[in-house]
Amino acid sequence: MEQLMEMPRTASLSRTVSTRTTPVHTFPAGPASRWFPVCKLGDLEDSWGEAALINGQQVALFRVGEHEVFAVSQADPATHSHVMARGVVGSRGDSYTIASPLHKEVYSLATGECFGRPELSLDTFPVRVVAGAIEVEL
């Protein structure tokens, strides 16, 4: 993948396979959080997952369509294996989803809710695009 911006040592991006599409969501930064630049919007392919190490935390990024981007934990909530960027992107109604590649539990990319097992949830992170660059709040 072409590197379009210099990335800080706190973020790295690796190529993984997944299908999905999502809009870019912009959230205000919280008092104890920090926005981390990860990559350019154009670096993410529609309906493919990317894994990023951001400030020591593994995050799965998903772009859906032209401008929607979601960031979720790379750890599968059922097994704690770091595989979510390889999940299958889909939808339920108006919600974009990610199906775990291990046990096929389906989660909302926006809220982390598990549709099949309510006791499970996937951590989600705010995402914004600034001057074409994706930033994730941790």
What does this structure look like?
With 138 residues, this protein is mainly beta. Helix content is 0%, strand content 40%. It contains no helices and eleven strands. A five-stranded antiparallel sheet has the order 1-3-4-5-9, with no helix packed on it. A hairpin with a 2-residue loop joins strand 3 and strand 4. It starts with 10 loop residues before the first strand and ends with a strand. The N terminus is likely disordered.
Q: Topology of this protein?
A:
Elements: E1 11-15, E2 35-40, E3 49-54, E4 57-64, E5 68-73, E6 88-92, E7 95-99, E8 106-108, E9 124-125, E10 127-130, E11 133-137
Antiparallel strand pairs: 1-3, 2-11, 3-4, 4-5, 5-9, 6-7, 7-8, 10-11
What order do the SSEs take from the amino end to the carboxyl end, as H and E?
EEEEEEEEEEE
- Percentage of helical residues? under 10%
Strand content: 35-45%
Q: Structural class, please?
A: mainly beta
> What is the overall shape?
globular
DSSP strand count = 11
Arithmetic mean of pLDDT: 83
In oligomeric terms, what are we looking at?
single chain
Low-confidence stretches: 1-29
Tell me briefly what this model is.
By secondary structure, the chain is mostly beta strands. It is built from no helices and 11 strands. The strands form 3 sheets. The protein has a 5-stranded antiparallel β-sheet with strand order 1-3-4-5-9, with no helix packed on it. It has a 3-stranded antiparallel β-sheet with strand order 2-11-10, with no helix packed on it. Strands 6-7-8 form a 3-stranded antiparallel β-sheet, with no helix packed on it.
